[in-house]
Design a protein that fits this description.
It contains twelve helices and eight strands. It has 311 residues and is α/β, with parallel strands linked by helices. Bound molecules: dihydroflavine-adenine dinucleotide.
């Protein structure tokens, strides 16, 4: 209950233009500014520097150009071109070829055709350079369209892509079977959005129990699933389930967000698990940043300290 309240409070704040203005002014201004704890930088150069540093510690990476919900086809085209430039820059930099994209950034909220065309452009460029493209999952109104577009492109031969399922949503257990049947890769998360009770579990215990059930379905029957969580209980449940089934560490991976639970990140690498860091970058970091605060309001303390220190 408290979790849901905190999430909706911060999602509400995320719509405040004054706060956005204030945060944008101070959040990334200096090397130690507060938003840099969760965001790798505003430019691709900063993101590539972070990616290299993370890879040196034995982690895998995926790069995410932040942005969501564009308002017209021109903005969707601009976001797509930014991704195409990022693909070239990643190749030139020699870091791991793995990116994450959001479909509303490519025009899903405008019309499906625009979005599919833009995603195809990214998948074509990615395929030419042997990239893996993860399609992030957004809030529930977009879930069916996202899975449907993914499935259509998968069946059209785009096999360099994977999708995300959220354990908060009732439908995800069936969706896991659907994606397993395709033989495609799933990233499992709890879900970052405030969702209505008609479609989603409201209690953390139910979200966690569903996470464990879906994790088991993916680790047992899926293709190289990604278990994306900072929750030690979910991580331990995954390790125990895989070990009990004799499933090798190379057949699945853990993922965490840049800057969160760095202690656990290091421990997974030290224990020989496959582990990937999600590295977000770009100027449109504010909504992503606010979702991270909503997940753990204790983070607000260091943000406030950061803002006061910046003035
Ligand atoms: P939970 O929220 O229960 O937290 C467990 C513990 O982790 C906390 O007690 C705390 O110690 C730590 N923790 C969690 N969040 C923290 C924070 N912000 N700051 C500090 N500590 C924190 N969601 C989505 O809807 N679509 C998507 O595509 C993705 N993609 C994605 C990729 C990757 C790699 C990850 C790790 C997560 C996502 N998410 C996502 C976000 C996900 O849905 C979820 O909101 C967060 O991971 C938080 O949930 P946890 O599983 O960490 O558990």
């Amino acid at each position: 209950m408290l979790d849901a309240l905190s999430k909706s409070f911060f999602h509400g704040l995320a719509r405040s233009q004054t706060l956005k203005h204030l945060a944008s002014r101070y959040g990334m201004r200096r090397p130690r500014s507060f938003a840099r704890r969760f965001i790798a930088g505003e430019t691709i150069d900063e993101a590539l520097d972070s990616a290299r540093a993370i890879q040196r510690t034995g982690c895998l990476i995926t790069l995410d150009q932040l942005g969501e919900s564009v308002n017209n086809a021109g903005e969707a085209d601009a976001a797509t071109r930014t991704y195409l430039t990022a693909v070239d820059r990643i190749v030139a930099a020699g870091v791991e070829r793995n990116i994450s994209v959001k479909l509303t950034q490519l025009g899903l909220g405008i019309d499906r055709g625009t979005c599919v065309d833009n995603l195809r452009r990214i998948l074509d460029a990615a395929r030419a350079h042997e990239f893996f493209v993860r399609i992030d999952m957004e809030n529930s109104p977009y879930v069916e369209a996202t899975l449907d577009i993914f499935e259509t492109l998968w069946n059209a031969g785009y096999r360099n892509a994977g999708v995300v399922l959220q354990s908060a949503l009732f439908r995800s257990e069936e969706d896991a079977k659907r994606v397993n049947a395709l033989g495609a890769r799933v990233r499992l998360v709890k879900g970052a959005y405030t969702e209505p009770r008609a479609v989603a579990h409201q209690d953390k215990a139910d979200v966690d129990a569903a996470f464990v059930r879906i994790m088991q379905a993916l680790v047992a029957d899926g293709v190289y699933p990604a278990i994306a969580t900072h929750d030690p209980k979910m991580i331990d449940a995954t390790k125990a389930f895989a070990a009990g089934r004799g499933i090798a560490k190379e057949r699945y991976e853990f993922q965490m967000l840049f800057g969160i639970r760095r202690d656990l990140q290091a421990a997974l690498v030290a224990d020989g698990y496959m582990f990937r860091v999600y590295v977000p970058f770009g100027q449109q970091w504010f909504p992503y940043f606010m979702r991270r605060l909503g997940e753990r309001p204790a983070n607000v303390g260091f943000v406030l300290k950061g803002i006061l220190g910046e003035r």
